[in-house]
Amino acid sequence: MPDFRLTRRHLLASPLALAACGSAPSTPPLGPVSPLKDLAPCPVGVCGMSGQFDDAGWRDVVLTHFSQFTPEWEMKMEAILRPDRSLDFTLADRCADFATDNGLRLHGHALVWYSQGAEAFAGLDRKTFAADYDRYIREVVTRYRGRTVGWDVVNEAVAEDGDGLRSHHWSEGLGDIDHIRRAFDVAREADPESILFLNDYNLENLPRKGATFLGLVDKLLKAGTPLGGIGSQFHLDIDIPDGQITAFLREAGGFGLPVHVSELDASLRSDSRIDLRSAGERQARQTARVTELAEAFMALPPGQRYAFTVWGARDTDSWLRRDERDDGRDSPLLFDASGTATPLYDAVAGALASG
Ligand code: 9MR
Description:
Layout: H1 8-13, H2 15-20, H3 36-39, E1 44-48, H4 56-65, E2 68-71, H5 77-80, H6 90-101, E3 105-113, H7 118-121, H8 126-143, E4 148-155, H9 169-174, H10 178-190, E5 195-200, H11 207-222, E6 229-232, E7 235-236, H12 244-253, E8 259-266, H13 279-298, E9 305-310, H14 343-353
Helix pairs in contact: 8-10, 12-13, 13-14
The structure holds ligand 9MR.
């Protein structure tokens, strides 16, 4: 059996690694690259949508490189919850079957999210609101019991600017902290094995938000909530100061819980900012930040590395490419439209292989 593992030496000698050091890449990488899932000593995840299951190019990238699957939207209320609060599992089942049929670990995403479920729960008396909230969580988690390794139980609980928690229909109906505790308790009762995550974004980017999030983790644990894992999305800002990602991950790891890099992508777009840097300079910055993230993840004790998940297989699969500001050139992921490795592949492969 040939040994496909990438060594650090191999990566440092590659044109893409040179690009990361500041020189322009001379040629794109040639030929197939090593499967990420074979290089990494931990699960490597990807999100996907049921509409992609018949796309041969997508399947090839996903089944070659990844060992864990997060449904991009089919396990959210938008797919499962009908207006009368009955449940429709058609698409969620399709995703669970895709994972099972292809030997991928399944990560459930997401039970309670401030941005979903408001219409179906509007105008209910408190008793019905609470009962249907519990029922939703119980039925969804029970249906996939034994199939999910973990669930994002509450997604994006912290306020945008990090000043406390968000206010929304769930917090108004059941209380700020109480709706969170309740969701974890019901999920735990429905599935004693699945690891239950609190998941959020911009935690590395806004230290204040990171601190509020970790404060919430602490508070929940002290209150006996069955929170079992920390999910940090990492929709990365490539201009985040050096060291900030490492600092956040180190602190998050301090709880001793499994940590999930749950939705990595790194847009090259500058949006409203005036950016005079060349494309090469921005790419070098992007590669450096993703390298820092992957290395900081690998610095966690092995038992705490739940998974390193990217939010899409190919650049063209990214939600960022569906944004109206997109110019069709953003490359936020590890593979391009044709399934060829981007510089981010090397960044991630190098760090994961070193573990
Ligand atoms: O990428 C997802 C997109 O396809 C969905 O339409 C959208 C709404 O369900 O959610 C996107 O994923 C989000 C994730 O669930 C939570 N963190 C932010 C992600 C990007 O918006």
